Please model this.
Amino acid sequence: MRKLIDQPRLDATPQGAAGKSHKHESAERQVSGQARYIDDMPEAANIHHVAVGVSSVASGTITSIDLSQVRESEGVIDVITVQDIPGHTDIGPVFPGDPLLASTEILYHSQPIFAVLASSVNLARQATLKAKVVISATAACLTVDQAKEQQNFVRPPHFMRRGDYQKSYAESPIQIEGEMIIGGQEHMYLEGQISMAIPEEEDRMLVYSSSQHPSEVQKLIAEVLDIKLHKVVVDMRRMGGGFGGKETQAAQWACLAAIFASRNKVAVKIRLPRMLDMMATGKRHPFENKFKVATDNQGLIQATQIEINGNCGHSPDLSDAIVDRAMFHADNGYFLGDCYVEGHRCRTNQVSHTAYRGFGGPQGMIVAEAMMDAIARKLGKDPLAIRKLNLYGKDSRNTTQYGMQVEHNLLADLIDKLEASCDYQLRREQITQFNKNSPIIKKGLALTPVKFGISFTAKHLNQAGALLHIYTDGSMQINHGGTEMGQGLHTKIGQIVANEFGVPLSYVEITSTRTDKVPNTSPTAASSSTDLNGKAAQNACLIIKQRLAEFYAQQVEGKPEEVIFTEQTVVLGEHQIAFNELIQQAYIGRVSLSASGFYKTPKIHYDRKTGNGRPFFYFAYGASCSEVSIDTLTGEYKVNRVDILHDVGKSLNPAIDIGQIEGGFIQGMGWLTSEELLWDDSGKLISNNPATYKIPAIGDTPEIFNVDLYPRANDEDSIYHSKAVGEPPFMLANSVWCALKDAISSITDYQIDPVLHPPATPEKVYNAVEQAQAWLEQQA
Amino acid sequence: MISFLLNDEITTIDQARADLTLLEYLREKQKLTGTKEGCASGDCGACTVVLAEVVKHHNSTDNRLEYRAINSCVTFLSALHGKQLITVEHLPDGKELHPVQQSLVEYHGSQCGFCTPGFIMSMFALYQQEQQPDRETVIQALSGNLCRCTGYRPIIDATLSACQNKTSDKFKQSETLTAQRLNDINNQVISTDNLLVPTSRHELAAAKAKYPKANVFAGSTDLALQVTQQLQSFDKLIALGAMPELNQLIEQQHGLLIGAALPFGKIESSLLKHFPQLSELLWRFAATPIRNQASLGGNVANASPIGDMPPALLALNAIIHVDNGQQKRTIAASEFFLDYRKTALKTSEWIESIFIPFTAPTNLVRAYKVSKRYEDDISAVCAVFNAQVVDGKVQKIDCGFGGVAAIPASVPTLNTQLQGKTWSSSESFEIGRDILKQAFSPLDDVRASKTYRLTMLTNLWKRFWLETNQSTQKIETRVVHLPSADAENSHA
Model:
């Protein structure tokens, strides 16, 4: 017999129990510069680099392309256009519409037209400048209004309805209409789009891609290369941020790298320069929404009509599901009464807008919050009172506009607790008093809730697989379909596996996500990767635990179902054995120590024809209270204090969950305040670098920032009764927008609901201040 | 030859592209990939590294090291000469993480981790400062680092914790030795074929004469963007970092004489001591790593319409000292900016220094900046006012504005119309408001609309008038805390 590893030793580090604040699995490597991103990997000696040449107009027809000078440029190895793609030329992820390289039609500004392979990054980029591409420009459709006027949509509309909303509206004493123009958002992941392709034997291809969806990258590469899926392996260890921007839109660059690698039989890397990354990849969809809401005299909603218009850019990408999610969340936590929600997917000559944390949810929910503010101002009430009044009920008024009953609703209690812990009422009085005596600086306060549906609304994506290996020293590797982009997914999965076997976290290695280990995976998206992959990993653990339990029970003549895995020991009644030792014995005893686990989410269904169903397994809840100060001379503002109470079910890792909540909040605050996407009249993005597009900086973090977890296990059978946490906290930032409006409203003694289209830049706040002052003068 | 300590190794560069950035050098030549490229434009901080240089301690013979965080993506290699370049890989002591690294781990301050090495380096530079930082100081030190994941709270806490419980790290322990090694380097000549580093005005004049097309740079934070963003190549560049006259700061009897090539990081404390009212401009001038490279001379020579400091120089009646190697002359700030990106500087000339006269303690000085974000943003409008009020009457008002015209500009009529008026009377406010309404016709751009810019001119004027006319009842006029904004109120 070959020798087993010496002395499996017990690890002295603490237990890997779920529920503890373990540090991020890569934390030490990250702080010391050892954590490797794709651009940091050792390169093959003859690696070459790709740059792309892009369109300088938003809409038009290519009349001629002369790339001769590009080919002659220093260091250039190869140049390709759409004609050089061996297989599919369209990489649309769900529906067609996304050309890998432009054919003759130009659909958006900065659309890739050709690609260059050269011996260095700089030489490749410089070569692209030498192209002579003549484009006959055509009139571009650049706004939602234009798209609607031209009936220009990427997908058909969708509708949800309940009752006779028109009749209820007409019969209600209070009727309010509003309109919102909601800006998009650049992902600004710190690591830009990047991919490295390494050709292997014959037509096989190994690709490293900074992607939230390795399986889709694998599929698209196979399609563009015209080979079978099993020839392509995609490997993804970690992303330097994703936020949705690498769900579909990492594929284009990976495909280009793979084509060059295949043609030239060399390793190829593509890394987008920041400005091109910002101009050539999709963003959070800008939306233009309208609402009509009617209430009784107390402000209780009777009827609602909401029109949702997503600016999808030139192609469907994921826009169908994104506009759907905006529609699913136009209620936020409130019962809409008799209602009608329509959602349109407008086609414009912009880059194809894509997934971004919240996935349309934020752009729907903010309409609900706008309605609450509008009702409150109309009735002269505190917006919080109106919000509480309109929350979903327990026994009545408890069904969403898409016919899903809201069970286990935590919002009323959660809001009450936050209202008390943040001294809302006392501060409300103080702020009103402050504003009376402060002519220039005004303060605002708002407490807003979040209810966010968890599950992919495309049902088939709600599945996951995991692959677990235990080695003969008791150490194990877990591989699953989810990708790590900083959110702590791998840490949580490691904790789940360690917890199942009662071993320290150091026993568990989470390896890079690879399409040859777990196939046909779903994207890491919709907040659900821990829910799905955690359950799949647990399932793999249970399979091996069952084998070990049976093996041990046979040895000590006990019952397998009574075997316990705890503290690196396996216990059965009075018998016990060190975990490592049992593993060695099991190996000798020819017990399989490898298993794959699988999970699919139960209970979910949705019928698009009727606009009815239960698209979500459960809801995650939260609430936040923000206090702001605004300068009425300049529109500058400061978020002074934020209090958050958020529901993550039974937390798998409180530190990681709080990190998601704080980070999501600040990112949401950026979307609603300083992050302004601006396109010029030709359709070119002009806020196209971090000098002109301002995400929150460190000084924007509120000095008082209290975040607490709502202590209650998920009522549904999720992994250890935890809840998803990736996206829901993003929308906690709605309270910042409402607080800014509250501060502006104070100028009119809270009589008007100011128009403040997000992002509320200082200039927009100032304009709203001016309008409030003008209103006041009119009254005088 | 450029010689420096790369972490612990004496390293020399004989031949390199003039426009090779430090980031490229680290990642591609040295394969030190801990330092990341986030934007290659000095806006995100993922590429932050630290330079340590020897400073002579005035009351001791010891040589101390001063540590400054810089953005490696907008730095050319000449900046390294005679210094220790410290990258994230070098921070741990054996297997033990540096206290700032350990603290960030414990506070869960990294998520995706891509910005993390840059944050670590800014934290490290702060850790090496002598004073114990408060939250404001931490925010200043980390103002040039963007994080998209955490929301910053754990990073602030981790930094405070590490810097408030400092222990002697390996850098402190080997400080004397490192300083000695650096002093030995400093005696060597430093030009390379492509990167010229003159050490006297005659050498500089000769270099300019020999390569008339070569750009001259101090901090390179602007010039490097032409390489990294516009993909331009520069065969020859002339660095001003070793020019003695351009790198001295002299407190004269009547004002500050600031060498044109000195980075803001080295003049900040003197500027703040004498002009505390400029704190907002200095605090919001780019971010710490850029301030550690960018020079006042560069800021003036670039003649950006926004410019940050030029409005202050106009309002304070600064004088620009220029030289061509043969002859020196002075130009008033008000006569320096001619047209969009065009100055009174002749091709053969360079800026040697900038003289800022002290203001009387009774002068009412305010510097304001309006932008989308407080940290590291470019002004939509910048306004600096300097009013001399004696016995309640206006003697003189000087001003400077950025973001509202093709050049940084002042409005002399403000002075002529307000002289002799009672400052506290609302008439004074109204005269100024009406003048400023008509003074400029700014443009719409990505930062602000024309209308907003125009309104801001008059509203900042209102703020100035309000703030300098407050008697007993204080009206709040700011939403951000400004450390030294009240400094001169005691005089007023």
User: Anything to note?
Assistant: Chain A touches chain B through 86 residues (CB under 8 Å). The mean pLDDT of chain A is 97. DSSP finds 19 helices and 29 strands in chain A. Residues 529-556 of chain A form the longest helix (28 residues).
